Amino acid sequence: MRTQVGLWIDHEKAIVVAVTEKGEETQLIISMAEKQLRRSGDSPLKGSYESQQVPSDDRRQRTYTQHLNIYYDAVMGCIRNAESILIFGPGKAKDELKKRLEKNNLGGRVVGIETVDKMTARQIAAKVRKYFAE
After folding, report:
1. Which one of 22, 45, 50, 82 is separated from 59 by 20 to 30 angstroms, measured CA to CA?
2. What total number of domains does the chain contain?
3. How confident is the prediction along the chain (134 residues), in pLDDT tens digits per residue?
4. pTM for the whole thing?
5. Is the dihedral of CA 51, 57, 58, 63 positive or negative?
């Protein structure tokens, strides 16, 4: 069975629309990556020891990258069986995912990458149907 996938992605969520001969299926994947990690403690001001309660920048960046890796692996798990993949979205996540697909020998299945703004799930599904109908 032929499966074509359209994927709207940013660093917060991904909406995957799979189009097959039987119909279409939409799936939402939420990222747990948080760019600004929260400070520990009950109040925003803890006196002269506040700097010790905020994680260092490199540790925050490593944590953020680990969360993004888990997120991209979940997205790749959903689209692994697709013959054709259209990736679109507003930011850098689409390019990061494409590089990851190429590392896993799935880059040849990507038929297009487009920059688009925020879209609703219905708009995404309509765009995917239109793209693969042509």
Report:
1. 45
2. 1
3. 589 999 999 999 999 999 988 889 999 999 987 765 555 555 555 555 555 555 567 788 888 889 999 999 999 999 999 999 999 999 899 999 999 999 999 999 999 999 999 999 999 999 999 999 87
4. 0.80
5. positive
